[in-house]
Amino acid sequence: xxxxxxxxxxxxxxxxxxxxxxxxxxxxxxxxIALGIGAIIGAGLFSLTGIAAAENAGPAVVFSFILAAIGCxxxxxxxSEFATMIPIAGSAYTYAYATMGEFLAWIIGWDLVLEYAVxxxxxxxxxxxxxxxxxHTIGIDxxxxxxxxxxxxxxxxxxxxxxxxxxxxxxxxxxLISLLxxxxxxxxxxxxxxxxxxxxxxxVVFIIAGWKYMNPANHTPxxxxxxxxxxxxxxxxxxxxxxxxxxxxxxxxxxxxxAQEAKEPQxxxxxxxxxxxxxxxxxxxxxxxxxxxxxxxxxFRGEAAPATLAIAATPFAWLKAAVTVAIIAGxxxxxxxxxxGQSRVFFSMSRDGLLPKIFSDVHPKFRTPWRSxxxxxxxxxxFSAFAPISVVGHMTSIGTLFAFVIVCTAVxxxxxxxxxxxxxxxxxxxxxxxxxxxxxxxxxxxxxxxxNWLRLFIWLIIGxxxxxxxxRHHSHLRKESEK
Length: 483
Known about the structure:
It contains 18 helices and two strands. By secondary structure, it is mostly helical. It has a two-stranded antiparallel sheet. Helix 2 (29-40) packs across helix 8.
């Protein structure tokens, strides 16, 4: 069988709706929008905004958020077209299997581990830091050996620096979220909705409370004059800042992994993907406008907690604690959506025979891929417990952008190879929109540096070894072609 043999769409849809591999359809449009917001809004909003304003765009970081959103929208529309054509679990992996063949489908499925599993580990380490900080403010100090990996220095209040043994808070949140996902998608969606409401409420309160105390002088000039160096203010600074804060939008694609659990995917998936992007863009633009209005953008340079600095310009000291709570809620929901997405991708790969059957075993009562959730709980926990955040952090971004490129390319291929198929949602202005999506995402990838490309290459090599020694010989599509 050719490495590029594709799986017929008719077969994909039949397999998804019946038999032992069917998942429970219980998500409506509100649940899907909440999943998108849950994955998108994390700590990045509260930290990247200040960095991009201070170093690149000034108050015009508002335009950078809009520019980055447009880039995401290109990929989002391509995801929406596929999610309505192929409304099953698996996201970009399934789309590639139907358009580019098994080999490329495996590559993108393996790549998604970087985005979801490694991403969840990264976020859990950040979650641990914020929880430890919050506990310290109320007089509870955990032993330093239990809050960091052996390679991560921990500064103590007296100024001394020690190294940890294991990051137990990070392990705790991964285990808790994994157990929730095993119990059921409805329960997971409700928990995510609570966290989304919490963090969105804090962002809205920050915008409303801070609006009155903005100083118009801080917004003058709105676009600072370029220093003569590309990326330092001016319009080039706006473009550079868009690349910095682009990663605050990462996560909306995880909505597509839940397509097989949507009640009416043809109608609801575009609403979930594009709706969550639109809502987050509005919040990001307003948040950055108020933030740069409260404090002059130059004061954010080198500031680890720029949102806290902005809050100090208002009389609402309690907002500092509220922002910390919002960040923790934001990170928790990101972990939930990342672990959900990863288990659904491996669920689809296992259903096709490319991974062992254990990844597609569905619980008879909860109708969730619980064994897959259990295995990823162990895998991600190991990263969370012992890996320094500097190692796993940037791997997530390049994996995400690679997935975006594959999906945009797949739309172009499907329009040529299967123009007759019904498309409840059609990407507008094809081929312009997919091409712009490809170019935008590849530009972001090149900006991530050689080290991240090397990590991606090594990761994909490991994946190819697994494919040629195991997956290719167990592929259901290959076995049927040999009959």
